[in-house]
Records
---
Amino acid sequence: MPSILQDLRTRFDRALVSAFGDEFAGTDPLVVAASNPKFGDYQANVAMSLAKPLKQKPRDIAAKIVEHLEVGDLCEEPEIAGPGFINLRLDRAFLEAQLQAIQTDDRLGVEPASPQRVVIDFSSPNIAKEMHVGHLRSTIIGDSIARSLEFLGHDVLRLNHVGDWGTQFGMLITYLEEVYPQALADPDSVEMGDLVAFYKQAKKRFDADEEFQKASRQAVVELQTGDDRRLKAWKLLCDRSRREFQDIYDWLDIDLTERGESFYNSMLPDVISELDEKGLLEENEGAKCVFLDGFTNKEGNPLPLIVQKSDGGYNYATTDLAALRYRVREDKADRVIYVVDMGQSTHLAQVFQVAAKAGWLPEQIEAVHVQFGLVLDDKGKKFKTRSGETVRLRDLLEEAVDRARKDLEQRLEADDRTESPEFIDRVAKVVGISAVKYADLSQNRTSNYSFSYDKMLDLKGNTAPYLLYAYARVRSIERKGNVDRDDLRSGKVILEAEEELTLSKHILSFSDVVREVESELMPNRLCNYLYELSQKYNQFYDRCPVLTSEEPERTSRLVLCDLSARTLKLGLSLLGIEVLERM
Ligand code: ARG
């Protein structure tokens, strides 16, 4: 079943063609949700935009459109207001029929999109370095976008572009051999501890000793030419890091395919020669560069993208060019999405431009940078531990779960409830992790966001616990009323109270919000939708008795409860958030 908004757009398109001729096919009818429920549910603003091309008054245009518009089965009589808005109010019987239709549909009326091959590059931490809160944002946002696109039927490749290659590995493997000579023979024999600390020590050693620097440079060369022993050391480091990353992914229930920078290493010389063949390469102070349109430095001089350093080495940009070329050529991507912090927007814009110039990014293929801001503490400063260190993600997640557990235990005590330790563990984990995910996803990702355990765990407000509660409340009503959910699937809906209508319309706009996430790649839209859904559900529940009302009202209201819960559950699953039947 088409979404209401899609359906209306199609019908407007038809009306525009029959009113003004074929040349108006495909005109955007500018149908949007009404800004104020007083004026209806949707409004079309197209009449104003056609005034010029048609040389007519918008109100007259609106009248002509309405004359040709066939929406009798959906809406009440359209009204023309103000300069030429066309206001539409959905018809009760139509809403009832739509609800009836989604009752038996596990997708709740969301039609699959025409499938695209989508590559999403997200998380992408660096080996032997900190996986920091920026990577956490990328992980959470990327996963949620992937889930929404997968749900719509797209073929999604979730890529972890880990930083597992580069000159720092010379230093790391040299240090490894120095301090843990036995590690190569028997990797499990050494307890290397925290890799981040290891990195810092190696760096200290590197900065202090020229001999060590020489050895490190030699090690890089050997690594790059495929020396067995060097590769073994490199693999060992990668494995250690990978285990640490995997721990975080397990906590967060994230599925990723690792394809790090090293994967593209063998393709780099060819990237350079292809750029050369296409006449794009220029020498600049010994380095090979591509000059770009629209990028200048502070002095206003054109800024080049360096793709091969003067020592012959390749860099981050070269790898990204190889990766983009590979994603289009080999992975056959129709859309490539980079979930990377805003600080890298120039880098990615440059990579996209060079790839386009080189013909690696044909126009019909979309490369997008899904950017996000910084994570700040509640005082607006960079998020750090009390002693000023970067916060370890594992500690952060553990703390969220611990706090969720404490909140839960207090609640249980206040309500004089006893629950099993397994129950408490599970609820604490789901609430704690969801709170962290939701706090991030519910922000407009392009702004910085303040991390606050208190705010994210609050039972009131736009938080995960609030939504999880709304869900659990419905389930508890169903248990109390001994309701068989399968029976509800054929239950008849009768909409009377204003709150029932409002809730129904919101439930039925679910597919529109999922499509919006698909095009805008903004998970916060879905969060807002779910928050409003919980609010509308609560208003309905306050006004309309459910279990104590008479049939057929009782069943009808139970169906509304059930559809609200199912929409919440499905919507939250697209954010990577699990629900609890009881909490
Ligand atoms: N490893 C990089 C970092 O930590 C992020 C990589 C993002 N993806 C990419 N294709 N450049 O900053």
---
Amino acid sequence: MPDVRSAAGLEVLVVGSGGREHALALALARDPGVAGVHSAPGNPGTAQVGRNYPVAVADPEAVATLAADLGVDLVVIGPEASLVAGAADAVRGVGIACFGPSRPAAELEGSKAFAKAVMVAAGVPTAAARVCESAEQVAAALDEFGSPYVVKNDGLAGGKGVVVTTDRQAALDHASSCARVVIEEYLDGPEVSLFAVTDGRTVVPWQPAQDFKRAYDDDAGPNTGGMGAYTPLPWVPDDLVAEVQRTVLQPTVEEMARRGTPFSGLLYTGLALTRAGIRVVEFNARFGDPETQPLLARLRTPLGGLLYAAATGTLADEPPLEWDPGAAVAVVLAAEDYPALPVTGQMITGLGTGGADGSVVVHAGTARDQRGHLISAGGRVLTVVGTGAELAAARRTAYARIARIELAGSFYRTDIAKAAVEQRAGER
Ligand code: AMP
Ligand code: GLY
């Protein structure tokens, strides 16, 4: 695609309405090469960065029509549902550069069975797995791998499709609720999220982050979309990123190109660092939430230029990424009863203006009521990001700020980045 950037700078449309999208909008607005940031549908946070436009994110034609009407230079797509529906293809179809994989490439996230097949073909280390379509196959696979059982819904399930349990009946029950299910070997070891920006050939890995998926402290409670994250990870081996680049990212991107469905956009690898080595737990086809929030707090490379280069196939010409040497810690404020049936419509107060302490409030499930007051509107309501020279300082800043926010019934984990600060994060 030719470089059609307007002289005044890039006009960018961010699709989605979560914390990830607000963080993307904030980082794009900091890029001196970006002239304007628009969001669709956005949230009250993105409304402070630029204008919000209503759109159904899973309707590719609606997304493409909006992008064309706004005349933007670049569309950045956040949600997997949008990508799996083909929004990136539709945007490119109207001649606009798009950061995000095509519909077939997004199957790396959309189907666990497809992702396994690509990993096997590319020789990427991952858990051994069986794809099952009957109760007999499920029972046989559970016996083959033994407890703890790992049972994954094949399709998209909003971060709630995976059950890890020592209870065989619970494993059978989850499997029977899925049309197609992947049963796999249990991976024992700390988890790391590694993002890579790619144009389908060149792969640019980011610094690693760690996400906290369980609802409550000490990894108790149900799986969630993610309750907090931090970066950098002082406890991972120095060569981790280089090894993942060589054994996971590059082979996967090459295999996708070989299949005629090149993957461009953000390749998110969830890794387990097991005693036997690095294993891929999952791929996602988009920025992770909440890892994006602390990572973007540290990325110094202008984001708009980077994503535009990925979208137009020119990543090889970009300079190496630059990172702030400090740390960032993100803590999610969740609504009462998240993730089961989050309570919404409650008043949020105490946000303050912040900033002076290096903290940022990133909106996700928030809305304005008729009088303009901020209210809760989703399970993960907002993320507070603290920065500092060290993880300990970033953590203190994030927790001091979130403690001042009031939302009836809400809760947050108090142990985000705690083990890393206490130098026991890599333990298992
Ligand atoms: P996924 O949606 O595949 O990322 O799975 C969600 C979460 O389930 C992961 O972040 C892990 O904590 C856990 N999980 C998934 N697969 C495995 C596995 N093979 N072994 C252990 N835990 C797993
Ligand atoms: N933080 C996990 C995810 O975005 O899927």
